[in-house]
Amino acid sequence: MKLSVVGTGYVGLVSGACFAELGNQVTCVDIDEEKVEGLRNGVMPIYEPGLEEIVEENYENGNLEFTTSLEEGVKNSDIIFIAVGTPAKEDGGADLSAVKTVAKTIAETMKEYKIVVDKSTVPVGTGDWVEEFIAEHQKNDCDFDVVSCPEFLREGSAVSDTMNPDRIVIGTEDQKPAEILDELHQDFNAPILHTDRHSAEIIKYAANAFLATKISFINEIANICERAGGNVVEVAKGIGSDHRISDKFLRAGVGFGGACFPKDTKAIVKTANENDYDFKIVDSVVEVNEQQKETMVNKLKNLLPNLTNKTISVLGLSFKPNTDDMREAPSRTVIKQLLEAGAKVKAYDPIAMDEAKEVFGDQIEYCEGTYEAIKDTEAVLLVTEWDQFQDLDLTRVKRLLNKPIFIDGRNCYDLHEMEQEGFIYHSVGRPSISAHDVAATKEVAAVNE
Ligand SMILES: NC(=O)C1=CN([C@@H]2O[C@H](COP(=O)(O)OP(=O)(O)OC[C@H]3O[C@@H](n4cnc5c(N)ncnc54)[C@H](O)[C@@H]3O)[C@@H](O)[C@H]2O)C=CC1
Ligand SMILES: O=C(O)[C@H]1O[C@H](OP(=O)(O)OP(=O)(O)OC[C@H]2O[C@@H](n3ccc(=O)[nH]c3=O)[C@H](O)[C@@H]2O)[C@H](O)[C@@H](O)[C@@H]1O
Fold this sequence. Notes:
GO molecular function: NAD binding; UDP-glucose 6-dehydrogenase activity
Mean pLDDT: 96
Shape: elongated
Largest sheet: 6 strands, parallel
Protein name: UDP-glucose 6-dehydrogenase
InterPro entries: 6-PGluconate_DH-like_C_sf, NAD(P)-bd_dom_sf, UDP-Glc/GDP-Man, UDP-Glc/GDP-Man_DH_C, UDP-Glc/GDP-Man_DH_C_sf, UDP-Glc/GDP-Man_DH_dimer, UDP-Glc/GDP-Man_DH_N, UDPglc_DH_bac
CATH topology of the largest domain: Rossmann fold
Keywords: NAD, Oxidoreductase
EC number: 1.1.1.22
Radius of gyration: 24 Å
Number of strands: 14
Structural class: alpha/beta
Helix content: 40-55%
Low-confidence stretches: none
Bound molecules: 1,4-dihydronicotinamide adenine dinucleotide, uridine-5'-diphosphate-glucuronic acid
Oligomer: single chain
CATH class of the largest domain: Alpha Beta
CATH architecture of the largest domain: 3-Layer(aba) Sandwich
Number of helices: 19
Strand order of the largest sheet: 3-2-1-4-5-6
Number of domains: 3
């Protein structure tokens, strides 16, 4: 089929490349000239495992094209996917200005039947509004349908999620676009849920809000474990074994970040408010998450009350592993708190260093590798659980540190091992190893020798 995808970000570029990989003729459109020029020359604007290979292959075989001209995209396709950003406005609502710009050009350009599919995350009722808007601004009188087809991919595994989705949601009550989109999605071999457009739009927000709720829930259980006793990893295993709960998204940590959970939770609260409803649960989810992002530095301050001029090592800057995305990354809060307390920061991330430089500028020191970031610092803060941070040479880490303080925001290490290695170790919702434990371990070791 002939498609265009408008917006070549995480969603647009990955979806476009995957549709091309399945044999469709895809035109990817973006207003960012540098991005489009780069893509034509094999430069990926984002890091996603497996993306570069399929983009290059399909660009070379002619299934995938890149342009800044939406007019060209509209002309070249029967189905137009809108995948532009819908960032949060000051008031928490979604900024739909890019969707509006795209809808206007589509209205002015189309000359024959088109299916306009919204893939961007947009508040309920946006499809109705886009439909009315296109009808109002149409230059040529032709038929069209507007469908909601929300996207559920995760960054860091976007290609694999797109190729193997849990479900595909097609939100339209019209038969013609439903049948065409069914056929387009057949090769994904996933269940297709047909629903009305409003429900499809709400499904997207409800899914993200629910997943975010699981995370804030387990983070609060972790906070209770820290105060009352217990180990949140064991608790998560215990409750997650119940199929009705499931063990997914029950990893306690330093709070959720990224381009979506933070903005989508706020947006659905806003939608509720606009409809005279107080969405109390998700409101609290957001509040708990803000607090959670501060817990690592608070733990450090309990151990080192005066951080002035102390150098602290931060491992992991992106909001999760396998991505270079720094949007709403918990590392931002952690580093802000450290700097406010007068500390100096040495940081390392395997992929997100360039993005991080845009965020932190010259406020922190950027290191070339993990151990360089640890050397001569007072404490290690493990913020993002990249594979290489989960398998550190602990003896070397301890030797490089001025003080054996390790704050693990992702529960990557075994408590017993950290005690044996002599670390003062604080993680999330698990018993902490204090200086007293470390001294005791050393005494036992000395007696044994
Ligand atoms: N990032 C993610 O993992 C997911 C994002 N979503 C949703 O998908 C949408 C897109 O998100 P991302 O891909 O992360 O955004 P992004 O910010 O990575 O990419 C958006 C792209 O749209 C382009 N753009 C903006 N205005 C345009 C216009 N008028 N014409 C053509 N291109 C234009 C921008 O230059 C940019 O390249 C959002 O609504 C987001 O909530 C949904 C599922 C997953
Ligand atoms: O709408 C979106 O953009 C996407 O948002 C999330 O995907 P993403 O933000 O890429 O990444 P996740 O794996 O969901 O992680 C989000 C955040 O939650 C945190 N998290 C996740 C899981 C967990 O158990 N604990 C936890 O703290 C991660 O560290 C990360 O900061 C959803 O998982 C996708 O289904 C959705 O399409």
